[in-house]
Amino acid sequence: MRNQVKWLLCFTLIFASLQSLFVLPAAASEESEEDPSTTAVAAASPLRPFPQHTAYVSGVIKPNHVNQTQMDNEVKRLYDEWKGRYLKKNPYVSNQYFVHYNLNQESYDKDPTVVTTSEANGYGMLITAIMAGYDSNAQTYFDGLYRFYKAHPSEINAQLMAWQQKDNGSAIVSNEDAGVNGATDGDMDIAYGLLLADKQWGSSGSINYKSAAVQIINAIMASEVNQSAWHLKLGDWASDSSSKWGKGTRPSDYMLNHLRAFRAATGDGRWDTVLNQTYSIIQQLYTGYAGSTGLLPDFATKESSGYKPAVGEYLETDKDGYYYYNASRTPWRIATDYILTGDSRAKAQLTQLNNWIKGKTGSDPAKIKAGYRLNGNQINSYYDLTFATPFAVSAMIDNSNQAWLNALWSNTTSKSTNSNTYFSNSIRLLSLITVSGNWWRP
């Protein structure tokens, strides 16, 4: 039953973006049923309003075929479209919001009552904290997402969020069939979002963002970090002592700058150990299994010889050891730390990745395909926005990628929000916030 639950827990996320190939345009958005500006308590003035135009490390590039105002406006447009399509008020609890990840069954969940996940909630908290200043209601949305997270605790560690929620007709509840335990990526983004909120609005209001962040960060350390191997686990359900699940890790969870922020917020030196181990795992996977491509797998496992790509169907599908829908996020997640700090430990892997994808596609983003084996052989023959946009973040690390970055910006901003999915649209928005120079660390 445990294996079945875990398989169900993640399976739909892997294929969420496939629907972008044939999803019908949605009807006009039904954002919140009432204007939050008329119902919320007075919001704090944002201290770091969008756009921020963050000073990234020397040598990092941005698109240069469009100006800064044009980039900011593209992000604003994509945010408005994302918010209008996905950010929903809980119909049963007026001060809660959630990010709907299953509109028109975009997530491929066969249960149409399933509405959201901790991953979606984390994305929403990151996005609304960053977009404060442009959106005068951002704090209302953020606080509503926070309350939604707190209303759906993991059954294992109540400071973490249960993975999946459904609408039973009278309430939105955690899905007892698959989603009552925590998933590491969603919990990490929720924690980082709270740290952003503390710097954006301060913690003297109705929610002490800093205190809430420290609580969930400590819970992640206690329940989602392997305490002997010091790698990020798949969730709080993965026991350290399990010969199968305790050794598993997901490279798309390698949010290196999150780990630095967790260390700074808590003073817990173990986060330095996790950061160093995460960089070590990236290097092992790159040099041992993807030296010609720089691609990382959806899942990896710790073996006696070190970390290696997971075998097929380790957790989800026969593509668990390939660069697929989980790993599509790694160019964005890993490159962000270099962009903000200049830590070069993954630069060789990112450089190889950039050179490989440019060569594979002839520097044409339209030729990026949905999934690759680690040797570079494509899995599917179609384009997917989920895979394209994160390459724009990794392209930022070096000016030799300028033309490629420009092409990626033009390609990814041209894709219709209504013709794509929650997964691809959320990844695009978060990636392009970074590419436009508007991501910042708390």
TrEMBL record:
It comes from Paenibacillus alvei. This is Beta-glucanase. One of its GO terms (molecular function) is hydrolase activity, hydrolyzing O-glycosyl compounds. One of its GO terms (biological process) is carbohydrate metabolic process. InterPro entries: 6-hairpin_glycosidase_sf, 6hp_glycosidase-like_sf, Glyco_hydro_8. Pfam families: Glyco_hydro_8. Belongs to the glycosyl hydrolase 8 (cellulase D) family. Residues 1-28 form the signal peptide. Keywords: Glycosidase, Hydrolase, Signal.
